[in-house]
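Can you give me the bound-state structure? Components:
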Amino acid sequence: MQNPNEIPNGKTGPLTWIGANLGRILVSLIVPILTFVILWQGYIFLRDSDAPKLVIATIAIIWGVGGVALLFYVTNWLVEKLPGSWVRRIQPFVFVGPGLALLGWFLALPVLRTLYLSLLDETSTKFVGLENYKYAFTDRIMLEAFRNNLLWMIVGTSVCVVLGLLIAVLADRTKYESIYKSIIFLPMAISFVGSGVIWKFVYAYKGEGVGIQEIGLLNAIVVACGGQAQAWLLNPPWNNFLLIVIMVWMQTGYAMVLLSSAIKGIPAELLEAARVDGASEVQAFFKITIPYIQGTIITVTTTILIFSLKLFDIVRVMTGGNNGTNVIANEFYIERFTYNSPGRASAIAIVLLIAVIPVMVYNLRQFRERKAF
Amino acid sequence: MASVRFNHVFKKFGDFTALNNLDITVEDKEFLVLVGPSGCGKTTALRCLAGLEDVTEGDIFIGENRVNDTPPKDRDIAMVFQSYALYPHMTVFDNMAFGLKLRGVKKEEINRRVNEAAGILGLEQLLKRRPRELSGGQRQRVAVGRAIVREPKVFLFDEPLSNLDAKLRVQTRAQISKLHQSLQTTFIYVTHDQTEAMTMASRIAVMNKGVLQQLDTPQALYDRPDNLFVAGFIGSPAMNFFDAKIRKADKEAFVEMNGFSMKIPANKAEKYMAYDGKPVIFGIRPEDIHNPEFLPSNINAAEVEAKVDIIELMGNEINLNLVSGTHNYVARVDPRTRFTIGEKVKLVFNMDNMHIFDPSLDSENPVAVR
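Here's the bound-state model for the whole set.
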């Protein structure tokens, strides 16, 4: 589009241009400034006001939501004043920019700070090089935590996925599918700490003595079957598996729901073709169903894998990492808050982060292949 | 190679009867087409034969064996699905080899058969591709190839051409006919397209609402439809129907329509005498209505006056929508015809090819009187 104000032979100097567009430039400056002032005034009011809480809250919501909308709108309006090619170049950043800035502030910056802290001693003042990392990879407790995390990842993940798949397939052929699936999905709605409390009752052991009554469900079953009450969470390595059961209880529902929807996405004709081609039910399952939902299986597996790698709550609540049940995330917590050693804690956190990255990258690549984003 | 027999087969889905006493015998090496409007039960019949549905009542035989309780994999049939149902994670080669691998056929034999089928279908260059990298026509051929390599007793086709464009459909139709000739195996083919049925079948089974309407050769269905449904379904444009009455006068019989009447040829008159005064339905195909200028010789002609309503030029013929009395009907006339819209013209019915249907037994689907 030609600007009608432009002199046709193209001899427009910058001064002429500014002169012609002075009004627009002024407006472009005044509107953002005005916006900023409005938002700032809102902030000042919210900070200093003695108004009733309800009023403050309402204003805060309006100020927050409206402020974000106003900021986006004004910035976008400003950018659209620019020449066409610049609009296309800058506009995406108007919308992505704030998100990126927040991510950088809350995610990237803390990572860098943690990295920095991991190179300092427990007072966070003296540089100790890789000393904390040496600890993270050689300390007996840490090695135990690594071993346990590996156990969680291998046993926990595979049991979750296999069980989830099995239930998804079987439920698909029953009449009351949604009821079964709801029941199995239910634990997902309980927080980890909450389920920790629930399972503490399941595994409870009161010890031996006069007048002591066992209240644990598991012990009740064992005793009813003629066995001896056990201190379930004190005996390695079985206590680890008992803790893993809790994660399986919680995460199988997640695996089941995703796999079930993937299974339902398989065209019926595909399985019929396989049956006509000579496949038994089992062959059709392994040669058609599994490859067809492979992408979902990988996504579910990696998600649960990441989850078991950074697992913390269950161990924290159930055993506190004692009796050979420690995991990396719990050791990090202990180092930081019990032993008050930010250097070591940061080193452990970085190790954990690096361990998660490959799984994460693989997961993202899977998403991209399936055009999930 | 085997014959196939549906022996009084019923299939019910709850209250809905999809197959109502289906009784068909398909001879060995025959090309049988099941045709009918959607929901008529033709696909259900095919799925029952494949073992993908259980029959509610009756027996299905493949060769000498009753297969009611035989799982699909042991029925020795191959099926081409409407959606092709190619395995998306397998290459074209693996798609075709899948059934053979499951049956434990030796590797060299698998290679030989797949390559042979690929040769017949022109798929040699595509063997390493995946289904998503193929065009619709190529996918269709892979689906056929997957059936061929199995060398089954019976081939089942479930509307295999409905996802192809018009031109490709005509080509593929010819290919499937050729395939039937070279393989010399029993083909059972389901379609809703009567042109497909007419062009490929050795015999056609016309179905409606789960009931077999007529089973005969294409020509016989066209010439001697058993009832109004078959008469209206086979042929395009469809047969014209007129509410009419039979009138007897001495030794002659007439069909009386609203506004005009026609003499029934002497050789046919006798069998309609009994219907004197009764309401019937008179049927005549558009191609049996002629422009008197271009009249074929040796026909029993009966004249009628009509007003031309619409003229459709087809090149090789002209379709006229006509009005006579209260009746609207279609004629396919010689392309040299020069009528104009609104013109009152004289046309000729070829009464040798007339049809009379008697609604007294079944008012919904009157039976042909022959």
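A couple of observations. Confidence is low (pLDDT under 50) at residues 1-8 of chain A. The radius of gyration of chain A is 30 Å.
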